[in-house]
Amino acid sequence: MHAAITAVHGYAPDYVLTNQELETMVDTNDEWIVSRTGIRERRILKDPTKATSDLAVPAVKGLLEKRGISAEEIELIIFCTSTPDMLFPATANILADKIGAVNAWGYDLQAACSGFLFGLSTGAQFIESGKHKKVLVVGGDKMSSVVNYKDRNTCILFGDGCGAVLLEPDYEGNGVIDSVLKTDGSGGQYLNIKGGGSLNPASYATVDAGLHYAYQEGRTVFKFAVTNMAEVAAEVMQRNNLTSADVNWLVPHQANKRIIDATAERAGLPEEKVMVNIHKYGNTTSGTIPLCLWEWENQLKKGDNLILAAFGGGFTWGSIYLKWAY
Ligand code: UT7
Fold first, then answer.
1. What integer pLDDT is reported at residue 315 of this predicted model?
2. Which pTM value belongs to this model?
């Protein structure tokens, strides 16, 4: 028995922040952004009263409707995010309340851009152990809440968005087949938010120093991401005896088109087999992979071999081999 994705849905807020608008905010230009990252626009949740859980509500409601089940049937919610509504309670709890998942327990999982992969792997194990039959794995971030729109190094990269999948037992050989997940804490210095935790609790000084914004040493992260994301995807393929011909889809984290291309090239996969929507959404952190699955859902067939891969802050990275179940 495997844990299979039996429904997927996503949500991206309406406001479109284009490269042209960013040109009016920082010293940048469309040509630089497109050629260095592949991003043309990203979505922003403008309403200051709304948070990451509000991105998840329409994603989850759409998923439940598609699957034809009620929120009361959900047993566990794993909410993968780096931008929780609050430090506590967990965004999973807030979401459960908003959608009426009164019988679920849940928790947040923080693994930066690899969050959804870590959550999918964790959620799958509650199904495989027989403990639960309906697990919701949500990946979403309101990155605009932690982006400094005066810093051209980071503000061009990120957007807001959320995707959600339902995991259920599968007895036909489909679902999560294998995963390789990794962390290296020595990379934490290159991509982080220093303020707001127990090390640097919020104060006038932390605000003045900009410690509540996402910080990234782009060039260093790029170097590690390019090598490790390609490496780990190749590793998962190899140990499951998958050649490039066996793989139907590569579903890469959407941080930079050049990182995606390098991963696809290493796996020997042509661009027709690679899900790419970075031009529309930018990097939505935990949201990128489920948003891709949602967007490509209609093209996926039962039994398709999918390789998911991500790299992000921590450092965290990994790859999952998944057989599509419907
Ligand atoms: O999802 C989590 C993991 N994150 C990633 O995987 C992101 C990894 N990093 C990247 O994708 C890339 O490093 C960036 C897109 C962030 C930057 O691209 P790059 O090719 O590595 O550029 P760079 O940082 O080496 O900067 C090149 C130049 C610099 O100017 P000098 O020092 O050569 O004069 C930057 O100041 O480009 C400049 N620059 C910009 N110019 C126009 C940096 N940002 C911008 C900008 N517009 N927005």
1. 98
2. 0.97
